[in-house]
Amino acid sequence: MQAERKISFYRALILGALLIPINLYWLMHAESLKPAVYSTLFTLFYNVTFSIFVLVILNALLKRAVPQLAFQPSEILIVYVMLSIGTGIFGHDLMIVVVPTLTSMWAATPENEWAVLFGRHIPQWLTVYDESALIAFQKGETTLYADRNLSAWLLPVAFWSGFLVVLLFVLLCMNAIIRKQWTENEKLSYPVIQLPLELARGGTGLLSNRALWIGFILTGSIDVINGLHGLFPVVPSFKIVYNPAPLFAAKPWNAIGWTPVAVYPFVIGLVYFLPVNLSFSAWFFHLFWKSELIFRRAVGIWHTPGPYRSYQTSGAWIALTILALWSSRKYLKQVLGWGIRGDPPEGAEANEPMRYRTALVGMVAGICVLVLALYYTGMSVAIAALFLLIYFLYMIALARIRAETGPPAHDAEWIGPEQLILNGLGARRTGARNIALFTRLYWMSRAYRSHPVGHQLEGFKLAQTVGASSRRFLAAMILASVVGTVAGFWAYTDAMYRHGTGTRYNLGSEAMRRLEVWLQNPGEGNDLMLREVGLGAGITALFTVLHHRFVGFPFHPVGYAVACGWVLSAMWFSVFLAWVVKWVILKFGGIQLYRKLVPFFLGVILGQHVIGGLWTIIREIVGGYGYRFFP
What we know:
With about 625 residues, the protein is mainly alpha-helical. The chain contains 27 helices and two strands.
């Protein structure tokens, strides 16, 4: 029996490792070459849902033909976690940012004087400087595998691959330490994992559920018709997006910006599993942010709308971390004591993914390696340590947000650690070299929509739920981190050498233009922005206290923390509809009706993820841009 379990575990590892590069190749075409649907903007990735759905169907056939070879739920979930981590690494705010920053000096011209302004601060080995390799990368119609192209990428890719793998391992250690408190003691709900868990655990039973297929057909039919309309315009389509911007053309109303009224069924399905006060808070505070924009323009307190909202979000995320750690202080003190002394009680570590001492040593050693790596690039130790400290505060908040509430998206754009450092210390005290090297870390700070840290913690929760070994899930996640990093660099660079960068939006140039502003206009800090951070933290702390003190308090602190992002701007109306639907169900049908309708809403998510994902594949085969179900 033990030998059979090992074989099945290795089988799941191999399958997950093979599917990661296939999925990343798919995403490269769907998100970058011919942007269709940005899977990695959401908490649940449609490409992973699609892959697991196909695996479950094939497994159902395998059960009938050769039952002894069928996959167990734990194996399917290992594949799910591996694909989620691999996809998160490649996501819209991580690998898609890393690679362009390695080629950003290509955009240096005599006019912008980048080479003079900050070229001397960035080590040549840290980026791609070979002119012929850069020309081929931009123009395409060649191959990555030419000796000169490969050699140009070898050193920077090796360095950043090692850095990223160590970073993900540190986060795994952090999650291993906090896992028990959040999962077993506080019993957080982990809403994001409901669909993959039910698919893996329910198998043919879930797939034979009539309510699931009603939801699937309902949303799938919309995508079928809209997809056909994209190929054949004569076919009518369902209009699911209305742009009210023309109604707000005059000042101060035009400050509201992009606020579409859109119906996305999969968002309604995801939000169905959220607490009612969270879904209410998400759309309410999004409209609150918008009304604040109008008010500020009306009274003349108008800066740029993005920064002040981002800084309030930054304060909210930091407050969530501090409050979560404070509520776990007794547990953390106990576990850290066991880790330092190496004397946990017998059985205390029985279900843990790693020993407490291993997790503690791995976390500390990993952070030291990261600081030394940044020091080796030229960054000062103090600034590197401060950057990583703020970054890890955000990561704890992100893991907590997903574990406690699981919103459909968790936007946090432009709140990176360098923003707080520069506004706190000022550009002069931070130093030109440190500021220049911040651009190499833009992938750690641009946004956190696709980050793997939440998927790591959810992997441990899935292992506990199905009674599987958390250490095997840990091994799978480490393997996925390595394979996802290597496959991510391959998928991006291989595609660019074949197709070229063309006129695509260059995130590397975005980082460099920001650096240009910092170095040309060095400041002494920005008290206004830091006050916005404090305001965001204070509001979050107040809502947290009231949320725990008063039953039925309508505002959830996480709703405030995630409400201002770009993705929420696109889906706020769908969140509103989902809140109305769930409120009505609970009001008039109670918890029994809510549970009875769970398969239907799982089908709603599944239908759009599967059919919408299928259209991205068809579009690649037939050519053109075609239909995309979001945005």
